[in-house]
Design brief:
about 500 residues, alpha+beta, 10 strands, globular, disordered N terminus, cell membrane, symporter activity, transmembrane helix, transmembrane
Length: about 500
């Protein structure tokens, strides 16, 4: 995801870092190890800055466009596929309105969070490299641990959700070809377990890439794929609406007593589904947990928060437009029968080859998005372990295997993580419910509460001042929404579990 392209003539070797060419020779910078396993650059003379930023790290080269691509990669994910279903629960009035409100909240709180990247002066202050670093600098105390647990549990959940989503898309490819061959009357059921294992093996391989610096290309590919399948879903929705001769759906969403493919809708189901829809929409917009990591790739001047503000406007504008189009056209096409996953719920059967392309694009995107979200978690565990066991060769030693640097702890830990997320995905393959839970669990604390509290601390906003009261009211409103969405999603899981057998997932 996070692109720091190495266009500068810098290279790292065992004896130090060679910086640029000056009068036909290399200027060498000595590298000394820190206690936590990182390297600290000691400059031999004043004013060398071709290869290093103000914190001694290699020059950042990110721009508005790279940051926008990273955000779009993170935001336009599998969540877009559930938006037609979400709007179907809320209706033509509440559905799009809620989506726009979420977009405005995300935009506002993202700008607050971006101003916490540096502590003190927004241009020259000390950098915070991760979300947790920002919380530690601005809030400190037990809130750092609370933030860490929420953030990394959310990242774990995203990995599980993406594994489930990818397997559903792979099964959908098999089923669409089956429908094409045998007709739509054949149920063409297939197990998703084998596809989860395939996705897990792929992620084991990609997870061995040490850090974001070396997977920037994966982010670009993922962004292209996300636009591809979103555009296909939108096109199929428009075609279906034209074929129907008009828009389906109602102002208030699916009505009590309506007969759907899943059965008759009760009053209780209507309430839980409406609440779950809020979680689905929240999940579709969530990217705050990696915003600081994205911002840490940006070059300066101008100040990083200014560049990030432009990227946020562009990316949220693009994604909201896509979301409204995909969600609304999907609901318009199928009405009360809008599927939980627009491209795999088989509201569409033809053209089957176009559905195959869309689902392949989803899988490719999710391969990259999985790494986008998991790399911060990988880096956190590895940094903590290196600090805890600095003398352990198993933890800190790098072995050269051709041009690749192999670390045994990284190999074991990342492989184990992918294996665990794959097994959990096989145990609980409920796409819509998992999406809703993730959205509800991470939205308020990570997207609203911590950014607001850090901003208040950073700007020293007086308690009970009009601005302080306004920010707290926004936080309280979002907390209520998150609790309601969580209740709806957990109720959905309970209902699904009544007819579910572990490791026997058939779609």
């Amino acid at each position: 995801m996070l692109a720091r392209s190495r266009t500068l003539p810098c290279r790292i070797h065992h004896g130090g870092i060679d910086e640029g060419r000056d009068s036909g020779r290399y200027l060498q910078v000595e590298v000394q190890p820190k206690s936590h396993g990182e390297a600290e650059a000691i400059f031999p003379q004043q004013g060398i800055s071709k290869c290093f930023d103000d914190d001694g790290r290699l020059k950042r080269t990110g721009t508005v466009w790279t940051a926008t691509a990273h955000i779009i990669t993170a935001v336009i994910g599998s969540g877009v596929l559930s938006l037609a279903w979400a709007i179907g629960q809320l209706g033509w009035v509440v559905g799009p309105t809620v989506m726009l409100l979420f977009a405005l909240v995300i935009y506002y709180t993202s700008n607050l969070l971006s101003q916490c990247y540096r502590t003190g002066d927004p241009v020259t202050g000390r950098r915070n490299y991760t979300y947790m670093d920002a919380v530690k600098s601005n809030l400190g105390g037990v809130k750092v641990k609370i933030c860490g647990w929420i953030q990394y549990l959310n990242l774990l959940g995203v990995a599980i959700g993406y594994t489930i989503a990818s397997s559903i898309s792979m099964v959908a490819i098999k089923r669409s070809n089956c429908f094409h061959k045998h007709g739509e009357q054949d149920p063409c059921h297939a197990s998703s377990n084998a596809y989860m294992i395939m996705f897990g093996i792929t992620e084991i391989l990609f997870s061995q890439i040490p850090d974001f610096d070396q997977v920037w290309w994966l982010s670009i590919v993922a962004a292209v794929m996300s636009f591809t399948y979103s555009a296909i879903g939108l096109s199929l929705g428009i075609t279906q609406v034209i074929g129907n001769g008009g828009f389906k759906g109602s102002l208030t969403g699916i009505s009590i007593g309506a007969m759907t493919k899943a059965g008759r809708v009760t009053m209780m189901q209507k309430m839980w589904r409406s609440l779950q829809a809020l979680g689905d929409i929240a999940f579709a917009y969530s990217y705050s947990i990696i915003l600081i990591e994205i911002q840490d790739t940006l070059k300066s001047p101008p100040a990083e928060y200014k560049t990030m503000k432009k990227s946020t406007v562009l990316s949220i504008g693009v994604t909201t437009t896509f979301y409204l189009l995909c969600g609304c056209m999907g609901y318009a096409a199928f009405g009360d029968d809008a599927p939980g996953n627009l491209l795999t719920g088989f509201g569409f059967y033809n053209p089957y080859w176009l559905l195959d392309i869309a689902n392949v694009a989803i899988v490719v995107h999710l391969v990259g998005a999985y790494q986008v979200y998991c790399q911060p978690l990988f880096a956190f565990v590895e940094k903590w372990t290196a600090h805890r066991f600095p003398k352990s060769d198993f933890v800190t030693k790098e072995y050269e295997v051709g041009s690749y640097h192999l670390n045994l702890f990284r190999l074991v830990w990342r492989t184990g993580f992918v294996v665990v997320t794959t097994i959990v995905s096989m145990l609980m393959p409920f796409f819509n419910d998992v999406v809703g839970i993730l959205g509800a669990f991470g939205f308020w604390p990570l997207t609203v509460y911590f950014p607001i509290e850090m901003y208040i601390s950073q700007k020293k906003i007086a308690r009970w001042s009009p601005r302080w009261v306004g920010l707290q009211m926004l936080s309280l409103a979002c907390l209520i929404i998150s609790i309601a969405a969580a209740c709806g999603s957990f109720a959905g899981v309970v209902l699904d579990l009544k007819s579910y057998k572990p490791f026997k997932s058939t779609i």
